[in-house]
Structure formats: C-alpha cells, structure tokens
Amino acid sequence: MTVLAPRTVDELERILADSPDHTILSGGTDLMVEVNLHGRRPTAIVSLRSVEELHAWTFDHERVTIGAAVPYATMEVGELAGLVPALAQAARTVGSPQIRAAGTLGGNLGTCSPAGDGLPVLSALEATVHIRGNGDRRDVPFADFMVGVKRNALRAGEFVHSVSIPRVDGWQGYAKVGTRNAMVIANASTCLVRDRSAGRVRVALGAVGPTILRCPEAESWLAANSDLRGNTPPSADVRAEFSRLVSQASRPIDDHRSTAEYRRHAVGVLARRLLERSYQ
Amino acid sequence: MNTTNTIAPPRPGTLGTDASRPDGVAKVQGGFAFSSDMWAENMLWGATLRSPHPYARIVSIDTTAAWKIAGVEAIITADDVPGLATYGLIMQDQPVFARVGDTVRYTGEPVAAVAADHPETCKRALAAIRVEYEVLPPVLDPETCIDGTAPVIHPDGNVLRHQRIVSGDPTVTGDVVVEGLYEVGMQDQAFLGLEAALALPDPGGTGVELYIATQWLHEDRKQIAACLGLPEDKVRLVLGGVGGAFGAREDISLQVHTCLLALRTSRPVRIAYGREESFYGHVHRHPAKIWMRHHADRSGRLVKVESRMVFDGGAYCSTSPAVLINAITHTQGPYKCDNAVVEGWALRTNNPPCGAMRGFGVVQACFAHESQMDKLAAACGVDPVRIRLLNAMQTGDRLITGQIVDSVAPVAECIRETAAIPLPPDMEADPNVLDLPGGSGRTADRHHIKRGVGWGVSIKNLMYSEGFDDYSTARCRIDDGVVTLKFATAEVGQGFVMLAQQIARTVLGVDEVLLDTIDTQVGSAGSSSASRQTWMSGGAVDAACRAARDELFKMVAADNGLDPSRLAIDGTDIVEVGGSFRRPVVQAARGKRVDETREYHHQPTEDLDENGQGNCHVAFAFVAHRAVVDVDIELGLVKVVQVATAQDVGRVLNPKSCVGQVEGGIAQGLGLAVMEEIVVQDGRVRNPSFTDYLLPTFLDAPQVDVVFVEEFEPKSPLGAKGVGEPPCISVTPAIANAIRQATGRDLPRVPVRPSDICL
Q1: B interface toward A at CB cutoff 8 Å?
Q2: Residue B545 pLDDT class (50, 70, 90 cuts)
C-alpha cells in the first residue's frame, strides 16, 4: 500500500488528478470501519493530515468557512461553537470523544450517509460545499451535493476543500434521537433554523430518507401562519400542524435500528420542540 | 462455621478489606496480556468458514481453489475431526463442523477452517472455498416445535427439555387474579475481550497445549480431547487473559478448531474472532415468552402461581435444559407461595444457539414475576413495596419444588434497606441536557419529562443444580516461607485471584501470596459461573490453606516442643495460645515445605421428578432493586436516574469488589431493560456490531446506591454468598416497572423500545 502525504492543497489536487482512484484519509472514522469490517482494501492512501489549509476555519460577518479536515471536537466548543451552535450540538452527538477528535465534516460529506450528524445542519443553514479538483474549483449548494444514500456530487479527482455556512440572524438548533443517550447512530435527527430577518424557519431531517430532507411545505405553512420575526411563539395548534407537516415530509424506512413509523413521529416531535426552543 | 478471628480493623489485604487486585494495575495501564494478545514463533493464523443460511443441506464442499492460494497450510472440514464429531455441555449435539450431506442449523455455523501465514490469506482462502447449499425453510417459531408442525431439524429432536412443576393444590384459586404474557429479547454477554486461542502442538502430534480464554478449563479439556481423539492428559489447557465472560465462554467455540489446525500443521495456530464473528461464535441469553397468572387473597397474599415458559434454545442444546429448569424453579420469585402449576419448554429452532448468561434463566422468570407483582399490587390496592414485604420468603420456607430454603433469606431486610435509601432529588429547574432522556441528542426539555419509580426483588440459586457435583480444587504450598496457591479457577474479571490471596493472607498470616499459573495441572475448579467461585473455589483455597497451616503448626510445634493444637495465627505471627511462644510466620516457616491440596464439594442436590419436585438447588441469594427513571413520554426515551439496591451477600469479603459486581450487574440489567437486543430476522442477526448492538454508556449508567445485607451464611465456607449474578436480575423489571409507572403503559416486553412507549 502506498501512502502519500501532501502538504498543500495544490499538491493534493495534483495527486488526485493523476490518480483519482486513490483513497482520501483524514480522521479515518468511516474509512477504517470499511477496511476492518467491510473488507475494503485500498491500495493507495492520500493523507490529509499535513494539508494545513484543510485544517483551518475562518469567519467574517457573512459566513463561517470550515476546512474539510477540521474535527468535530473543534466544532463542539469554543468560538466555532458560538458561531454555529447547531453544528456544535450536532458535533457533540457524534460517537465518543476519541471519534470526535478524529472525525471531520469533510468525512461526513465524503461518506454522505443519511444519518451523517453534521449534514442536517448544513442543509438547514444552506451551506455551500467548496470543491477542488482537476485544476478547477466549484461551489455546490449542499442541497445539490448530496444526491442519494452515500452518493454525492464529487467527480473523479475532486475533493471537498471546505464548507461555508451563512451566518443567520436568529436561532438555530439540532436534536437527534437514538436508543441510547450518547454514542449512537441517529434513528432520526432534525435541524431547525429560525431566520428572524427573513421571517422563515428552515427544517432539515436526517436518517428519514435517502438524503437529508428539507420540509418546504411545513416551512412555508409556518411562515404564513405565525410571526417568525418576533418573540411570540406560535399557538399550540399551529405548532401541532407544523409538526404534522414535518412528519409528512419524511420518507423513512424500517430497519434493525428503528421503524418508519417511529422515525416519522420523532422528526415531527423534534421539529416542534426545536421551534419552541427558538422562542425560549 | 470456623472462620479466622480478625480484630478490627483487619490487616490490609486480608478478608473484609479493599485488597487490590494483582492484575489491576496491568489492566488499567494496558499491559495485561489478554488472550487476543498471544503470539508464538512460527505461528499460523486460523479462520473459520461459516454458514450464511439458518437451515440448509450441504451438497458439497470444494476446497480446490483455496488450496491453490500461496500461504494456505491447512483446510479442514468435518472429515478431518479424528474423534467425536460433536460436542456440547449437556448433550453432545453440536458438530465441530457441519458435514456434507448433513445440514447447517444456524446462520454462522462452522463449515470449515483454514490455517495460513497471514489473516489476509485466511480471508482469501475462506472466500475461495465453494460450498453448495440446498437451502431449506428454517424453523423460527419455537411454538411450532411444541405443536409439532415444525420439521424435526436434529436427530435428537426439537424439544431440548420439557418440565412441569405441580405443587400443593393445583385447583385452588384466589380472590384476586392477575395475568400477563411477557417477552424477553435476546441479550448478548458482550464481553470486551473477544474469543481468542493459541494452540501449540506437541512434536509428533501426540498432544497439544491450548492457551484459551474460558470459564472452565477442565470441561473444555474434556470436550476438546474427545473431539481430537486424544487422552485428556495429552491436552493441556492454560488460561489466557480473559476479558469478561458472563456465560459466553462456557461453551466450546474456537477451541477444537484451533487444536485441529495446530495438530494438522505441526505449527502453533492462533484464532481470534472479531466482534461480528463473536456474535456468531458464542451462545446468547434465551429469548423467552412467559405467561404468568397469580392468584392472591384480597390482602395481596399469594395463593397460587401459574406459568408457561417457552425458551428458544436456537440450533443446539448448550445449557438450555439447565437454563429452563432455573427459570421454572424460580417462578415464584422470592415470595412464599404454596401452590403452583408451571410448565416449561426449551426448544430447538434455526435461530442462534442460546445458553448461559449471567442470571441463567432467572432473569426471564424474574421479569415476568416482578411485572406480575406490580399488577397484583394495583389489583389489591396496596403499594408495590407493601405487597412484596407481605409475601417475602424467609429461611425455612418451602419452594414450589418442595425444597426448603435453608439458606439465609433476608428478603424483607433487602426490601426495607432498599426503601431506606434516599430517593434522588427532583430534577433541577435548569438541568444539564446530558442528564435528560436523549442525552447528548438534546431531544427533551425539562417539561417533557415524567419521573417513575419501580421495584424488583429476586431470588437466585448459587452453584450448579440437579445432582451436579461441581467441586473445586486448590493447592497451597509453603516453601521456605513463600506461600504459593495453585488452582484452575478461571479468572474472568471477577477478581478471584485477589480473593484467593486475601484468604491465604488471612489464614496463614503472610502478606505475600504468589499465584501459580491457572491451568489444568491441578484438579478442576468448576466453572466461573453460577455465582459459585467465591463459595466453591474460595472454599477449596480456604481448606488448602488451613491444611497447610495445620501442617506448619505441627512442624513448628515439633521444633519447639509445643502442642500443635495450641498454636494459632495472630496477625503475621504464629502464637501459642497461652502466650509462651510468638514468632513471625515467615520466620517460623523458614526451611520448611508444606504442600496440601484440597477439594471442596457442596451438599449434594437431586433431580426434579415428573412433577418438578426435588431438592435441586444448593443455596440461594436475594436482592432488591428500586429504580428511578425519567421518561420522555412523547419520544419514548428513558434515562435511569438512580438504582438503589440492598443485596444479601452473607458477608462482604472485599467491599470494593462487591460494589464493582453490583454496579456492573446493574448496567447489564439496565441494558436488557432499555437497549440491549440481538435483532434476529429470518434466522439472521441484523446487528452483529457494537454500532448497532447498544450497550449502556457512561451517560446511560445510573447512580447506584448500594447497601450490603450481611447475615453470615452458615452453609458457605467463608460465610459469603456469590455476588455476581443477583445485581443483574431484578434491576430489569425494576426499571420496566418504573417506566410503566411513569407512562401508564403495559410494556410486556424488554428491552422496552422507544416506540413501545410513545406509539
């Protein structure tokens, strides 16, 4: 097995342009499971550890930009957590402290599992994925990036460079249901953003469909039936209908972790509770 | 009973103190060699090919392509087993490998094994072996084995055991009757140290030495030698470092395969399972369906208990018959009840084989009877504590098997002591979200939570039952003042190595006690199961140490013109009771050599007759649990806030170790209550990983407040009862009862799933 350790993004880009079948390794929290449990046998590895640019994050008054190799541990606490609280909350639900020290947002995007904990946040905040490769750069809205179960818009030779998340005037939160109180794969997850300036909420659901699902009908209905700019919470009836519309937007399946019925129920409850929290 | 007189406070390291474990530091620092760390020069790796089908006839096995892979040194199938083709603890019904023309009976059943120069070569070799199967419709519902609609899937039949208990007047009825149908899911022992073994062949293939993580070296040896066609003395077993057992190491898994490959290749062979293979490699806790009906008078006093229990034993017998007998003989729980009609079935299906797990059948029975006790309390309008106290068993009471409980039976004390433990404070106004149900998922706010309190009380038999003489052996050697103990007791994490040292320090008055290798070069110790080693191997070590001490006294008396019967140990000195002689033991023993081996046998037990009558158990231990849970009713998520418990232990020999057993057992019982389940669908395990088989994490573990009820058990050599199993038995129904109280739901099944609560 060959292991390459580029130091710059340009170098990384050249390696992948020449050898698009090389396997990218950052925290390894997905790749090593593939290797150890699912018999994947990569022949060439490109390590991101020395590519400093990918480990950096920056912000201005418009957006927060997070490098693909920034670990969840960095998002969980400190300044970054203050800037994107929903992402911090999602990061805290990922695995154990050891996993969070290793796993990255780039990995979440590379794998694109519907249960990826960071992805509903990127969806609800309408993040942009910055892609490099083949001498080119492209910016893809998250909604177009994830195209199916573990399928994304990356082409051969491309990699995720970073993600930029618009800063929102308002409230954002994330909640995830699993059958234990930590270190669990999502049975269902929800991110809700209440954008005060726009007078809208944006809701994204994880683990209840082939991709992260937005809930346009619920979002529009709520905007039309409540004051999302102010401090007066919607009535109980409105919250209940919103909850129902969110559930309706989900497309869950039965599997060994949970049932479609429970998942549909759970995302509705989570969305309603997050909406209520946004007024607290 | 003779025990050493100790003056308070006891000498550090002796019985009754928090003696530290000889293996503790190495385990904490990562230096302890578990069996998966073993290695030998010139070693080959072994791997096992398993059936992908729950039930299928093997048409052919073609190893041609696998043999062509460079580095493959051996490929073995059923034809290569020189001795007995099958093994098993009770019934030898499980093939070493499924044979061509015969059937595989569960998904994961071994079909062939390979030895090669590298684990990767093994994987490729397994992939290259072509097995042609004729897939058959599997038997999945144990009820079809009772009504006879299932095809017979084994020459020994589909009924592993059927037993009735009829006690007192079976026709009597009570004024108050409650009934329920309960279900317990399949739990895994989920030890952290995976199955691993290293076999070293003797030159010429005349014998083999096996380093193995197991619970009972001598039983393993018996079964291995039979399959290898070797005399037992040509098969030597040495205990490899064991990372937990909980019953999952009672059965043969990789032992025979590893030895066969080593003998075939004349090279050391190591097999080590990964986590997924481990789920196929060992037996699990029986899933069970239990119907119970309790009759009581209006005050709530039990009149009769009726039950029908159906245990799914899976494809092979393992210990299913004994598990079933444990379950049905514990139907009444720790309560006095004169009349009973109980029927139990253990059945063979094409589901994963089930066998021993901590609690051994009593877990399932207890979930049912404790659920019933709450129903009965509600029907009689008394509270759950009151109804349990009203019916609490006492020493001298007769069980539904006719056996008299001659153990210390402080059931009421356990309940009262538990009730006296303060309840946790109400939830804070602004609680830490991590402490709420849902934990790090931040699913709930304070006002979504409802608190519930629930009770569970249990009785558990100690040692093996039904006429089994599960004796234990120990040797104590004093050589020039150095004390060395030898025994074959499997140290599986429970701390027997520490307890043995405590006993020797106490009896012999020495501080340093060496432990010889744990292997088959001494007599059997029985299994590290059934909460039995403190009593049994503790009894053997105690007896061997006493015998050695008495020999030493004779020598010292002869040297000094004293009467040996007037010598005693005082601290670390040998003293003459009249005060005429005092000398440090280590000094008095200089130049002397004593070597004493003793066996300890418990009182004999009997088989049950056709009506389930007989003195089938040796002794009993009791425990009460009170669980406090917070439930998010709308999402069905649970946080167990506190478990209060008072446990009947006879006597505390090591406080820290007892607390460890209690906390660990409670975590395991909590797992069964709310999350741990092997999901089996169409005969296949759907979640064979720790990603999806959920064990409680630190955030799920409750605060545990424990009181030990110490009433010296005269039947026990040290006055102590086994502490290992009781903690995990009644905590499960206590948690279920607490969730029921919070939600008002019936919840007849554990693990309680979120959807059971909220949909």
Answers
A1: 123, 274, 276, 434, 437-445, 448, 634-637, 639, 674-675, 679, 681, 686-687, 689, 691-692, 694, 696-700, 753-755, 758-759
A2: very high
Report the C-alpha gap between A152 and A135 in whole angstroms: 20
Residues 6 or more apart whose Cβ sits within 8 Å of residue B27: B21
Q: Which domain holds residue B82?
A: 35-137+200-242+249-270
Contact (CB<8Å) A36/B679: no
> In this structure, are B668 and B683 located in the same domain?
yes
Establish if B207 belongs to a structural domain: yes
Nearest-angstrom CA–CA distance, B736 and B384? 13
Q: In angstroms, rounded to a whole number, what is the distance separating the alpha carbons of residues A54 and A8?
A: 9
Residue that is last in its domain, among B600, B620, B636: B600
The residue among B743, B724, B729, B741 whose CA lies nearest residue B370 is B729
Q: Hey, what are B151's tokens?
A: 């095809």
Topology adopted by domain A2-166: 3.30.465
Residues B400 and B515 in one domain: no
Measured between alpha carbons, how far is B741 from B426 in angstroms, rounded to an integer? 16
Q: How high is the pLDDT of residue B1?
A: 43
> What pLDDT digit, counting tens, does each position of A231-273 carry?
999 999 999 999 999 999 999 999 999 999 999 999 999 999 9
Omega cis (within 30) before B9:
yes
Q: Is residue B297 part of a domain?
A: yes
For residue A180, give the nearest of B636, B686, B697 by CB distance: B697
Q: How far is CA B41 from CA A201, B44, B46, in A?
A: 65, 9, 15
In this prediction, residue B9 has a pLDDT band, given cuts at 50, 70 and 90, of confident
pLDDT number for residue B7: 52
Q: Which two tokens stand for residue B417?
A: 């002591």
In a domain, B105, yes or no: yes
Q: Could you tell me if B28 and B40 lie in one domain?
A: no
Instruction: Say which residue the tokens 């150095």 belong to.
Output: B482
Q: Are residues B665 and B648 in the same domain?
A: yes
Asked if the Cβ–Cβ distance from B442 to A173 is below 8 Å, we say yes
Domain ranges of chain A: 2-166, 170-277
Same domain? For B439 and B537 the reply is no
CATH code at position B80: 3.90.1170.50
Query: Measured between beta carbons, which residues in chain A are less than 8 angstroms from residue B675?
Result: 179-180
Instruction: Name the residue among A122, A140, A279 with its Cα closest to residue A211.
Output: A122
Chain A residues whose C-beta sits inside 8 Å of any chain B C-beta: 33, 36-37, 39, 89, 92-93, 173-185, 187, 189, 255-259, 261-262, 265-266, 269-270, 273, 276-277
What pLDDT score does A39 carry?
86
This model of the complex carries an ipTM of 0.96
Task: Tell me, yes or no, whether B315 and B449 share the same domain.
Answer: yes
CA–chain centroid gap for A80, Å, is 15
Shared domain check, B115 and B233: yes
Instruction: Convert the pLDDT of each residue in A153-173 to its tens digit.
Output: 999 999 999 999 999 999 999
> Each residue of B360-376: pLDDT tens digit?
999 999 999 999 999 99
In a domain, B153, yes or no: no
In this structure, whether the domain defined by A170-277 belongs to CATH 3.30.390.50 is answered with: yes
> Using one digit for the tens of pLDDT, what is the confidence trace for B56-97?
999 999 999 999 999 999 999 999 999 999 999 999 999 999
Residues 6+ apart with CB under 8 A from B16: B6, B10, B651, B652, B653, B654, B655
Quote the number of domains for chain B: 3
Q: pTM for this structure?
A: 0.97
CATH of the domain at B572: 3.30.365.10
Looking at the structure, do residues B572 and B644 belong to the same domain, yes or no?
Answer: no
Classified as helix, coil or strand, B471 is coil
